[in-house]
## 1
Amino acid sequence: MSLRFAASDRSTIGVEWELQIIDPATLRPMPCAPEILAELARAHPAHGRIHAEMLRNTLELVSRPRRTVAGCAEDMGIALDMLAPIVEAHEAVLVGSGTHPFVPPASQGVSESERYGALVDRTQYWGRQMLIFGTHVHVGVEDRAKVLPIGEHLLAHLPHLQSLAAASPFWDGEDTGYADNRAWIFRQLPHAGLPEWPEDWDGLEALTESMMRAGAIKSFNELRWDVRPSPGFGTIEARICDASSNLLEVRAIAALTQCLVESASQRLDEGLSLVRLPRWFLAENKWRSARYGLDATIVTSPDGEQAPLRRSLSSLVTELRAGGAATGVRR
């Protein structure tokens, strides 16, 4: 099958931010997203920036495709301003975190959607546990031949993003001991977690076709990988991060993701190699960063070399600045 990769300007960026609707008196989720969205549509009929999500207690804020993180943050700020009086009228507040800390996850209402209804029907118990919230970042890639190599580069730096955003230590009233418990809940869905993709785009098309023929998926979007191409947008999408608690954190996660993609793109243009780790190292790093957050020690090379994550993250930021990635995305 043909998996068309849409045209997209290099290193443009878009952000999706999932927020919980919370009763400030009880700190419990409120299943009033449909009512809030209906009122929002009447007040701002062409807003296009705020959407329903799987659960009725969730709103998703979506930026437009932008050239800068500041532009995405501006979109998010406008969305929050539009929502503020409506959410306040419902005696609610919006909260960002990877999970809700204490309510039973299966007690939350699912949005009226054929897609979500089918997911819960198929996955049963685990589908009813999806009381989780994330920040997703899309970055434009101008050439589909670059997409999978850049994806591998992002996977090698997945613990940096994951640990920086980790905000889900509690689950159903329990302290899980994990900085990012959301990652382990989400991976229970089919085809979620670390990707198993081939070497090139032709192979990805063949993989998608075979999975559809086998009845494993109905569309490419059902591949819920931590990092995945988004053919319809012409982007690579990082999906590993817990929902940020504030807009400043959203900006930090978005900026790091954008710089990682631009840095990888620059290296490919120069004929240089990208960091690529064996799959079991990627899995080990994901577990370590989920368990220990920024206190983790991660594998940094195919030879098994290790480094404290805080030090590795600091070195990465210095490298991105020195290499011009930060300059490359300020257009």
Note: The first helix runs from residue 33 to 43.
## 2
Amino acid sequence: MASTKLNDLATTFQNLHRPGKPVILANVYDGASASAVAPLESCSAVATASYAVAKAAGVEDDDLTLDQNLAAVRVVAKVVARHGNKPLTADFQDGYGDRLVEAVTSIVEAGVVGINIEDCDKETQRMMPADVAAGRVSLVMKTARDLGVPNFVVNARCDTLVRGGEMDEVIARGEKYLEAGATTVFVWGGSRRGVSRAEVERMTEAFDGRLSVSYKWSHDGLSIKELAEIGVARISVGPRIQMFAMEEVAKRAEELLKQGDV
């Protein structure tokens, strides 16, 4: 795809990040899930989730390689291109160390206009210094600009809370990531801890609405409406759609297989 058209898609995606009227992403992980989500009229953009991509590849999230992630993203990109060519963003974990430029170049060449990038080093399982993580956001943006996509969308993930850190550090890090060129900051509290309403409200105010959150999809979590009213700009679901799908697969398979018990 020509860089001008790709940057137009990036601009479209960037403009979908509206505080108070957030872009909602039903994360996919392979060609089949992309084929189900991308054609939906209500789908304005498509996003992958690395945890789900890893499960589909038969490995754990921490073991997902750059090549495996790229292979999945390329398949998803082809499917998305066949269904209206909506903006596509890819979850690329910590950016794969010193292969960050290679990773960004590869996904842009595949037609991707956004990326999730984390501030916890995948190899050491330690938080990167804030300036290092912000520098990697800057490098992503420079690489995208050099490829003709200056409006590339970075969703900078902060793992401070899930690593036991404090909200003051989250805000300090998030501000650095936004200054470095990120469109939004995604704060991951973990599947157990989560992020409270008060924390979402504080971060939304601190980041001027440029906050990305994970929708818990349960009775005790904030609803889409509540998150929008607080003023977030982006909502995603990570691997939850895959989890729902696999539960249904197991249920149907068991119903079938039990019919052999005669």
Note: The chain has one domain: 1-251.
